[in-house]
Each structure stands twice: as structure tokens, then as C-alpha cells.
From TrEMBL:
It comes from the Eukaryota. One of its GO terms (molecular function) is zinc ion binding. Belongs to the NSE2 family. InterPro entries: Nse2(Mms21), Znf_MIZ, Znf_RING/FYVE/PHD. Pathway: Protein modification; protein sumoylation. This is E3 SUMO-protein ligase NSE2. Keywords: Metal-binding, Nucleus, Transferase, Ubl conjugation pathway, Zinc, Zinc-finger. It is found in: Nucleus. GO terms for cellular component: nucleus; Smc5-Smc6 complex. One of its GO terms (biological process) is protein sumoylation.
Amino acid sequence: MSLSSVQSTLSTLKSCQTDIGACMDMVSDVALGIVEAQGMDNSPALKKLEEMIMECSRLDREINCFVESVDEMTAQVRNEPPEAMVHLRNSVKERFTELMAGVTDADLQRHSKVVAFKDSVRKYAMQAGQTAAENEEEELDEDIAVTQSQTNFICPLTQVEMVNPVKNKKCNHYYDREAVFEMIRARHRNKKKFRCPKVGCGNTDVQESDLELDLVMKRMIQNHKRQTGKT
């Protein structure tokens, strides 16, 4: 076993984490579809989906612990004689077992996408209830409601309706994911900060880590497109 082969394996595992994150987003999206169809946030189907996203959280944590174990153990043998590599596998296994033994259900619950799953389901259930109540209000001005919703769905960067809306955790503004990531990276390549494009916002340094996909907003946009006949 060589250090280069170890690093290659770690790179593969880290790419798997991207797939795990995408899977967790898909589970959340399916959950919102169930809430929309059933109008409730405590169905057996949602419980199954919660179990699935918790399992994804565990897989993600296992990869993190394994990477940490490998990094620690390879750092120890890097400057030692070649024969020290013989014991690397066992050392990594022992350290990984130690780290995983300290992982609790509470740790898995704190995964950002698990938190987002529960928060999205709760918010969407509340919104579904509010929408049903509003539909019963005869005084509702539909033209104003449509105009407001369209405005909320417009990305301040592209000036078109968002596809994958991300929310800025610092200033609570929304942008289309691809557009804002491209702008942030372009500014950083020129060693400049990216300012929130929302008029009047004082957030002068938007980072990719500040942004999170808002599945509730994404479903609202999808529903709006269906209702207005857009594709």
C-alpha cells in the first residue's frame, strides 16, 4: 500500500459524499410531494423517508470518520521507514472504530440536510394549511397574489424565474444556485468579494457556504409553473 493509492481512495470517497448529498435532497423533495398530496406531516411514508435520510447521514459521517482516520494515521507514518506502512491498515481500522463509537443519534440529527429535511416538511405542511385557508377567502385578490409570487421567484442576478433557489443564511435573500455560484467563483478568481445583488442589502461578502438549497421554495416555483402552464 502506498500513500498515493490511499489518497486516490480518499478522493473517490469524497466524491461519494456529493452523491449522498444529492440523494438526501431527492428524499426531501419526495417528502414535500407527500406533504402536498396528503396535507399532513406525520404519515407513515414520511417516517420511512426520515429513516432513509438518517441512514444517509450515517453514511456521510462514516466517510468523514474514515477520512479523518486515514489522515491522522498517514501523517504519523509519512516520515517513518517504509515498513511502517504494513501496519497502516490496522491503525486506520482501530482509529475509525474509536471515532464511530463516539457518534450518537443526536450527531446524525444535526446533519445540515437532516435539519433541512425536518424544517422543510414542517414549513411546507404549515404553508399547505395556509394555502387551503386562503383559497376559502372570497376577498383574495388573485391578480396581486400572482404578481407577488412571480416577483418572489425571480433571481436578482438572472432576472428570470429561479430553477434551483438557494437561500442566503445571512441576509435571507434568494438566488438561482448556478448563477450565484458562478458569480461568486468569478469574483474570487479576481480576488474580489461578491456582494448580495438584492437592492438595499448590506451583505457585502456572500460565500458559497452561506447558501443552502430551499426545497420548499423550489416546490412553490414548480407548482407555480404548473398552474400557469409554463414549462
